[in-house]
């Protein structure tokens, strides 16, 4: 596998794991089979012109887009099986981490990986437990002879999603602990960021919590970052597509599109909140 670190803003970085070609002798896991089956079913439902399947897909895609991109990134990292652990510990081939040298100093890359692997660990464990608690409650809905038990299947999916994200984070922690990563600055990735037209959306205050500030390059020097203590976007949707083309990773496009949309939305909401607060402050001064 190969890991990519792609800054979305000056405070946030997308993690993506590319699954390299597996040996022909390697058997497909039941998880991979189930995931493929679900993807094919979902695709078939998307082709429907109308009906409940089409509505389920429409609402489902709306909900899926709002799952944090950090969770999707960790889910892209395969769980650490005993076989994979033994292979990686042998050290025959280290896992490559691709990153833009112009935005992420080498000394910071491992810290970003560690933060991405650990900051949501407790959240995924907690949400996984709540999904298991909710599953039995939704089982009676399956007695209705109209549509499948969608609440139950949603909780099953979210439980799987949280488990995969948790397992992906544990895999990265294992790689960091055992020094099984090799860091590769990418001129291709740097060229995409360099070609990004300015200015991009920004906000005077970061949209992350103070303990999450390691997830990007907080202070990018230059006029393209008008709020060095706040947060500035580093990619837009057009350059996100250029990134996937430059890396020849079409499967990365949906991940980047989702991440850019989520961070842009957060930046815009932050700007609106600050403007509203300033407006209220100005009105209060006038009335005094």
Structure description:
By secondary structure, this protein is an alpha/beta fold. It has one domain (2-27, 67-118, 164-287). Helix content is 56%, strand content 9%. The strands form two sheets. It has a four-stranded mixed β-sheet with strand order 2-1-3-4, sandwiched between helices. The relative contact order is 0.16.
Give the SSE layout.
Blueprint (H helix, E strand, L loop, with lengths): L1 E6 L5 E6 L11 H17 L5 H14 L3 H7 L6 H9 L4 E5 L6 H13 L2 H18 L11 H28 L3 E5 L1 H8 L7 E2 L27 E2 L4 H11 L5 H35 L1
Helix pairs in contact: 3-7, 3-10, 5-7, 6-7, 8-9, 9-10
Helix % is 55-70%
- Multimerization state: single chain
Number of strands: 6
The largest beta-sheet arranges its strands as: 2-1-3-4
Specify the number of helices. Answer: 10
The structural domain count equals 1
Strand content: 5-15%
Shape: globular
Helix/strand-derived category reads alpha/beta
Radius of gyration: 21 Å
What is the H/E order?
EEHHHHEHHHEHEEHH
- Uncertain segments are 213-219
């Amino acid at each position: 596998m190969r890991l990519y670190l792609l800054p979305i803003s000056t405070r946030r970085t997308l993690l993506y794991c590319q699954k390299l070609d597996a040996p022909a002798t390697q058997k497909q896991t039941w998880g991979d089979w189930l995931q493929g089956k679900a993807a094919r079913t979902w695709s078939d439902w998307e082709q429907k012109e109308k009906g409940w399947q089409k509505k389920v897909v429409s609402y489902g895609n709306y909900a899926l887009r709002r799952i944090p991109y950090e969770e999707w990134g960790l889910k892209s990292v395969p769980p650490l099986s005993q076989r994979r652990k033994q292979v990686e510990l042998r050290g025959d081939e280290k896992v490559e981490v691709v990153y833009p040298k112009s935005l992420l100093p080498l000394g910071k890359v491992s810290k970003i990986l560690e933060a991405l692997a650990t900051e949501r660990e407790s959240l995924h464990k907690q949400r996984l437990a709540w999904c298991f608690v909710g599953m039995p409650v939704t089982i009676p809905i399956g007695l209705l002879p109209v549509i499948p038990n969608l609440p139950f299947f949603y909780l099953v999916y979210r439980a799987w999603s949280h488990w995969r994200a948790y397992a992906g984070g544990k895999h990265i922690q294992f790689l960091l602990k055992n020094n099984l990563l090799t860091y590769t600055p990418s001129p291709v990735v740097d060229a995409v960021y360099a070609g990004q037209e300015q200015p991009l959306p920004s906000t005077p205050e970061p949209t992350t919590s103070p303990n999450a500030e390691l997830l990007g390059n907080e202070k990018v020097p230059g006029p393209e970052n008008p709020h060095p203590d706040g947060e500035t976007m580093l990619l837009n949707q057009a350059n996100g597509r250029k990134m996937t083309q430059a890396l020849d990773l079409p499967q990365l496009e949906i991940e980047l599109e989702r991440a850019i949309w989520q961070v842009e939305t957060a930046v815009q909401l932050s700007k609106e909140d600050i403007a509203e607060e300033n407006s209220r402050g100005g009105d209060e001064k006038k009335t005094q």
